[in-house]
Amino acid sequence: MVELCSLFSGSSGNSTFIKAGNTNILVDCGESGSHVEAALKKIGVEPDSLDCIFITHEHIDHIKGAGILSRRYNLPIYASVGTWQKMIAKIGKISTDNIRYIQGGVPFGAFDSIVYPFSTPHDSCESLGFTIEHGGKRVSVATDIGVMNKTVYESIKSSDIVLLESNHDVDMLLHGPYSPELKRRVRSSVGHLSNEDCALTSTHLLEQGVKHLILGHLSLDNNTPSVAYATTEEALVMKGARIGYDITLEVASRYEPSAKYSL
Ligand SMILES: [Zn+2]
Ligand SMILES: [Zn+2]
User: Fold this and answer.
1) Rounded-to-integer distance, Cα 52 and Cα 69, Å
2) How far is the centre of ligand 1, averaged over its atoms, from the C-alpha of 227 (Å)?
3) In terms of Cα–Cα distance, which of 207, 229, 203 is closest to 216?
4) Residues 174-208: pLDDT tens digits?
5) Which domains does the chain have, with CATH numbers?
6) Which ligand is nearest to the CA of 11?
7) How far is the CA of 59 from the centre of ligand 2 (A)?
8) Which of 53, 59, 96, 253 is the most interior residue, by most CB within 10 Å?
9) How far is the CA of 164 from the centre of ligand 1 (A)?
10) SS3 per residue for 11-39
């Protein structure tokens, strides 16, 4: 059995709970430790039942509470060498046993699950996304991706549940409050995935048989949940999908846990 629930998602903080068999995993821990603990309790998960934390990259919206939870519950943290180099000074002392190095493209076993980390195009040091498998079922988390490239797509396409970035509406970004430099950064091939690119990807994922799609990492200034939802919904419907039957679609909240998806 696999389960996925987004606890928080957005430029202010990201954390996703995944259960793969008996393994309880947090992908990113980008809110304070107490916020993440409260969100876990809200979905019926005791924080002391966590087994490990996977970190996508060193930006603060992904690591804020990681050190605190690792120390409090003696949790191993899995991240790339580059992420560890940038992250270690920001999350406080981590016991040597709990520092685990992983690499994009190199699968590893974590308790009773198989994890496929994959490289993501983002302006950080060796960032990753994750596909996690147990009992033939797969879930993926793919956010902070400047473009949907072959590596990312191939890594997520056979998943049953996908949390995919839908960061900004291109028009809202272009006409929004960001400086020209920041607009360039967000739009670049190492920035964030737009609603439009997310929608296009969703049509391919539909053809691949993805059952649950959750849109995440929305920008506060350059997107709204309804715009993100409508953009991908329209693309899926144009492909003949019946939302809720062929595929479910939800926008992960910035503040609240999403539905808990399980297969
Ligand atoms: Zn980032
Ligand atoms: Zn981020």
Assistant:
1) 10
2) 22
3) 229
4) 999 999 999 999 999 999 999 999 999 999 999 99
5) 2-252 (3.60.15.10)
6) 2
7) 6
8) 53
9) 14
10) CCCCEEEEEECCEEEEECCCCCHHHHHHH
